[in-house]
């Protein structure tokens, strides 16, 4: 069977993108998803995204991590908006459905500004934090994230009893300036550090911004630069959350499976 695909990356978080408006892709075939994401035997990616038609929306994005598990993917959603614009499904605004519900996005001067779901609360986990931004995120502030053992420590937290059985993504943050943080992320379902994690940097920005009273945070990730804007409500909720950054098409191709 031949599958046509496009490869996109959002600040280094990379995805196999499939225009599946014909609904031909078997979304139950997780073995195929993992095979396509395999960096040696397949195309290679952190995840795979199907673009499907959906009544009442410009499109639906169905996201899979490389291991076939599903969750909300912020960078993947930004790439889905860019891909849908390339396909002519949207122009500069998109209203689409993801696993965590509806999202709105705007394409503005080469960036995608993605509306994230509201966040109800930030929790403490020992000296660290936990927040769900559409995907679960453990967040630890460290002195020198550049030299921090992200994969070892990330995996041990991800597989800890506290997060069994579903696990969590794990983010490590250092401050670069008052409104600028440096984030590295161990991603559940990729089971490795990724070059950036959209829902992860959003989690880190909300926690950091809430502590500092700043609602527009710049983020440095290994794969590029992002920004998060939000409105903190008196009751501890966060709304009007925007994840802003680039999303690029890298190549297109067909694969025989
Ligand atoms: N690995 C995450 C989903 C993808 C998140 C990340 N790629 C993003 O950009 O938000 C999880 O299983 O919760």
UniProtKB/TrEMBL annotation:
Recorded GO cellular component terms are:
cytosol
Q: Part of which pathway?
A: Amino-acid biosynthesis; L-lysine biosynthesis via DAP pathway; DL-2,6-diaminopimelate from LL-2,6-diaminopimelate: step 1/1
> What broad class describes the main subcellular location of this protein?
cytoplasm
Which Enzyme Commission number(s) are on file for it? 5.1.1.7
Report the catalytic activity.
Answer: (2S,6S)-2,6-diaminopimelate = meso-2,6-diaminopimelate
For this chain, the family text in UniProt reads:
Belongs to the diaminopimelate epimerase family.
Q: How does it assemble?
A: Homodimer.
Q: What is this protein called?
A: Diaminopimelate epimerase
- In the record, what lineage is assigned to the organism producing the protein? Bacteria, Pseudomonadati, Bacteroidota, Cytophagia, Cytophagales
Gene it is expressed from: dapF
